[in-house]
Amino acid sequence: MSKVNQNYPKPKLVPVPSTNIIPDRDIGQRPILECRHLGIDFGGLSAVADFNMAIGRTEIAGLIGPNGAGKTTVFNLLTKVYQPTRGTILLDGHDTHDMDTAHVNRAGIARTFQNIRLFEKMSVLDNVLVGLHNEMNNGMFSSVLRLPRHWIQEKRARQKALELLSIFDMQDMADHQAGSLPYGAQRRLEIVRALATNPKLLLLDEPAAGMNPSETAELMENIRKIRDTFQIAIMLIEHDMNLVMGVCEGICVLNFGKIIAKGTPEDIQGNPAVIEAYLGKKKED
Amino acid sequence: MLAFLNHVINGISLGSVYAIIALGYTMVYGIAKMLNFAHGDVIMVGAYICFFAVASYGLHPILGVLLAMLVCTILGMVIERLAYKPLRQAPSLAVLITAIGMSYFLQNSAQLMWGTNQKMFPAIFGKTPFSFGGITISVTTVVTIIACVVIMLALTWFTGNTKMGKAMRACSEDKAAAQLMGINVNTTISITFAIGSALAAVAGVLLCSAYPNLVPTTGSMPGIKAFTAAVFGGIGSIPGALLGGVLLGVIEIMAKAYISTQLSDAIVFAVLIIVLLVKPTGLLGKKIREKV
Question: What are the helix and strand counts (H, E) for chain A?
Fold first, then answer.
């Protein structure tokens, strides 16, 4: 009788042809995220194919592309909302193949959503406290019995939540209901909630959607501030080219699920393939 | 007038039992988005466990109640794990049918194990009633109302202030987002079932203390009524379960006292239909906003 291998076939790790732009300061360290030949099919349609990229530990990376290019799908793959059909995701060197969404979050990826998905009926503070969930490791017993450890942890969590809110000057809104906040504040709260899970990589899905130019400028400042304060990597999907070109160090352009260009903002701006993807082919005459 | 007051108190007491059961329905619905029709039969199991502990093994009633809670907690978690968890991605109709099947499974297992003979539930809270100014209230009535208030306060505090409570509220609003915040949705659902089933055990003991006939189908009618109470108050809402339960209890007792004993159930369900016609989300129901 032949021996049946019960284990999942481990995906083969093939060296990625490196055209990634990792900032100088992160070179020599293990990238926080590496995708190797990542792909997913929906039915017969290949939504993302052969997606290779690496992100430096403190890099701000951009993922851009026309509508329907598969950008959000990539985020859903990274957070394991979708299971990849092919390829490997290495988070800080660890294969996330066997992890579920909650596990990936605890391992260090946090995200925000294209359409805001706060816990609207909970207070601003509680939204952040839910994010701090992993940090608070007091069990049911200690919290139901109100052991001293519970009070200490609860107080520490509250303090940390308020500190995080203060990054965006939102500490005064702590008791407001999240759903009642103005749009811009809800977007900021979503970032704070994601930060509360203590990520190594923060994924922002269209953080500037619906913002005016001055709000966008403020957001750019905040993205840099978050990177500098927490020393984490940030990857963002965005249609606002001013923001992308202004804040990202490495950019990856996706079209029809495939990477068509990678490089620094300067490289991307002059890349004919990118211009074609966005504006169409120049008519030959 | 005195008779009326007595009816009100009895109604509140019966309503408190409905409210405690309704909590189980409403919490599970709020978090797992499913109707656990086997909930009523968990009540019956709880009552049987307490019955055997007290009547056959001579345990102290408090120990009997705690034992019933423990058994029901485990039973609830096992039911969730074996019957509902594999259907997490299945259409809600499949889950509903499974829940109804589970309900009959529990009833028939109880018949097999404990027989169909009616058991007389012992008066575990004593027999001497309180009386002041012409009103007599049994100890069971008082205990029931107090238990309901305590449970309600404790649950409100639990969902508002503990880490698990916050996880529950987060899951009830948006499971996917909760997962992305590192919350284990399966654990949260499992604990919800555990709490709901422990409450069902308490409700079973209280119900059988007031109406001491214990048979394997004891749980089904109160289960349906508590479900009605949960819908009446607005399913998914904890205060709604309290309000719905108490109102339903009072309406039932009043209907029995002043209109007709036979028609009381018909009246109860008629009120439900009218409320749902006027306010489809129940008295305290959340407005459901669908993304289109």
Answer: 10, 10
